[in-house]
Amino acid sequence: MQRVVVIGTGGTIAGTAASAADHTGYTAAQIGVAQLVAAVPPLGERALELVQLAQVDSKDMGFEVWRDLARAVQTALARPDVAGVVVTHGTDTLEETAWFLQAVLAPAKPVVLTAAMRPATALSADGPQNLADAVMVAAWPQARGVVAVLSGRVHGAADVRKAHTYRVDAFDSGDAGPVALVEEGRLRLLRAWPHGTAMGLDRVLAMDPALWPWVEILTSGAGARADAVRALVDAGVKGLVVAGTGNGTIHVALEAALAEAQAQGVTVWRASRCGMGPVLGEHPRGWASAGAFTPAKARVAMMLELMQA
Question: Does residue 91 carry a catalytic annotation?
């Protein structure tokens, strides 16, 4: 039986609260990955290898953890006895970590991120089922690429986004829809598994995370001011993702400042603050579209692109 390596990074799935009725007033990243697995009896029948890589609330996720996680995932996947990898993670930045791993590694084996909206101490915690489903997907012979498994849905790394603040079914894949559904311990495939060309880990490992290109998200809205753009440029920002209104439209007060920033070597991309849909068409100033990426995911994509420049 091939192994599944389960890597713990913290998050709500490992969180605890003083009361089983408390779903929001908890402390994340309190329980180790071994305890999480022990709480799911069916996983005792699986060949698992457990690694505690980090213990962080994912709102505080850092590039150092990403670097170490990518290295650990690549090392595990290179072993012939490993079918796939599961990463337990917080929900807040899961979509960013998923895309980072897919863009850097584009693995031929499955890498499955899973999480929970309720802490481990909740009366009806969602973490145990999500973890069981994630291990099943990681061991599935045809699975590949980086995916996220939550609430019985398998989401591709390029499409997954957190779409609700509180519900247990907080994640969706936008217009693309899920890759597959988990149904009674089996998968119903709906579309192709994630694939693509890997950026490669060597470039990531060669650069101190403190020196990774600085990219920020700037939101366009009523009464927007150019001061924010100029302040970021003066501080040394290398790229700006504008979360524009509608189809990536940008307030006129920001456009001149963004053009100045571009002239000084700052990369500018247009995304949308809307929850669904891509940014279509060209901008008169030539600013690239982030496509269907959320602003948060576009920020990661731009950072990786600048890293390769």
Answer: yes
